[in-house]
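User: Let's play a game. I give you a shape written as tokens, and you guess the letters that built it. Ready? Here's round one.
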């Protein structure tokens, strides 16, 4: 990758907050790679620690099926908690292997990405600020949800070691044994000192590390997605101001308007190139996010239906799981839907301008852009299914139907 240069705070779209990326070091990772083309020590340390923490936990959960008694309810625990760890690893790997493209996509966060005339800057800045406010709220919500999950799981552990080792059925019926954070099995005497304490610290570290990284990497990917939406929207606002203020036979006005439209065409083509690049990075990420999100939602729903627990702590933890996955899945679906809407709206926006009053060159250029913008741009899952608001409703319906059917079959 050629040297792109660092992105200064003054270059960023007005109103967009990158404080989470800065605080956790990812902004330095991005700028260092943009400057040198090399991965710095922060991202290397993150990858190494993530694998050291996640791999043993995930491995032991699936080995446990040959070592302890398991029914459907206990299996939901053994499968529920490894999935966020796998989500974390997948996001880190997507960023690691596509870092060149991801860092290039961060050009979308620049307020001078599009060539907007100075006399329209105040208007488009208001559009940027409105959209960025939504992005900031979503990122903050993801952080709050994840930190609340970390706190509740660590300070209110609710899974009995005796239940994991010796029992099946309703977890609430087992009142003996020391409590642990996650529903994990390990090839150790888990109930004995110092193994219990070591496992408790290990699980607390896993929960904290995974919770923080999932939220930070959500911000990393989501802000680029929303910035692309903002750029399409601003281009539409720019096009909507293409109005002839003088007689249509005024050649000077016609030439000026054609030059402005030509720049808009170049900006639109630039946006389409970046959209294709974003798809190549995000489509695998979205497929994994939606797939694992569906699994976690189904497993959580089954646990809620089968557990029949009256424990407020247990119910609240399951609700947090739903909220956590719901926020991330819905934000990717809504973000993709916003891009689809803003990119397709350009077709109507250019049609609503005064293109019919202009000369032949202007009309041909406007028609060319209308053709290019006719089909909206959107992310896809598994390379073929568009991701939008309809996808979110389908996911919720599928989750409810699947979990209900499985719970009734089990009963």
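Assistant: Ready! My guess for every position:
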């Amino acid at each position: 990758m050629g040297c792109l240069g660092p992105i200064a705070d003054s270059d960023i779209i007005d109103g967009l907050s990158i404080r989470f990326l800065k605080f956790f070091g990812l902004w330095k990772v991005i700028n260092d790679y943009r400057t040198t083309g090399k991965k710095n020590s922060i991202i290397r340390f993150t990858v190494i620690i993530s694998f050291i923490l996640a791999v043993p936990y995930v491995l032991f959960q699936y080995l446990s099926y040959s070592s302890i008694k398991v029914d459907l309810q206990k299996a939901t625990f053994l499968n529920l908690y490894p999935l966020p760890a796998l989500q974390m690893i997948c996001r880190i790997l997507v960023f690691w292997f596509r870092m060149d493209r991801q860092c290039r996509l961060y050009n979308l966060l620049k307020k001078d990405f599009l060539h907007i005339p100075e006399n329209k800057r105040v208007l488009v800045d208001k559009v940027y600020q409105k959209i960025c406010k939504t992005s900031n709220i979503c990122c903050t919500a993801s952080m709050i949800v994840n930190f609340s999950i970390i706190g509740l799981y660590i300070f209110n552990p609710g899974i009995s070691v005796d239940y994991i080792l010796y029992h099946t059925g309703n977890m609430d019926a087992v009142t003996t044994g020391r409590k642990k954070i996650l529903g994990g099995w390990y090839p150790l005497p888990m109930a004995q000192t110092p193994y219990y304490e070591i496992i408790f610290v290990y699980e607390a570290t896993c929960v904290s590390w995974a919770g923080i990284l999932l939220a930070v990497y959500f911000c990393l990917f989501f802000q680029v997605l929303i910035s692309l939406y903002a750029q399409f929207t601003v281009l539409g606002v720019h096009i909507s101001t293409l109005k002839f203020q003088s007689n249509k036979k005024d050649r000077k006005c016609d030439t000026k308007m054609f030059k402005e439209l030509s720049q808009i065409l170049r900006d639109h083509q630039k946006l389409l190139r970046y959209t294709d690049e974003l798809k190549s990075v995000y489509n695998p990420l979205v497929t994994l996010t939606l797939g694992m999100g569906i699994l976690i939602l189904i497993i959580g729903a089954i646990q809620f239906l089968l557990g029949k627990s009256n424990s407020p702590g247990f119910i609240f933890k399951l609700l947090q799981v739903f909220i956590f996955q719901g926020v991330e899945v819905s934000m990717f679906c809504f973000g993709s839907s916003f891009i689809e809407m803003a990119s397709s709206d350009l077709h109507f926006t250019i049609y609503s301008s005064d293109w019919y009053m202009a000369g032949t060159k202007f009309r041909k250029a406007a028609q060319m852009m209308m053709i290019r913008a006719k089909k909206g741009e959107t992310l896809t899952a598994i390379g073929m299914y568009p991701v939008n608001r309809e996808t979110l409703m389908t996911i919720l319906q599928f989750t409810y139907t699947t979990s209900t059917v499985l719970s009734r079959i089990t009963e």
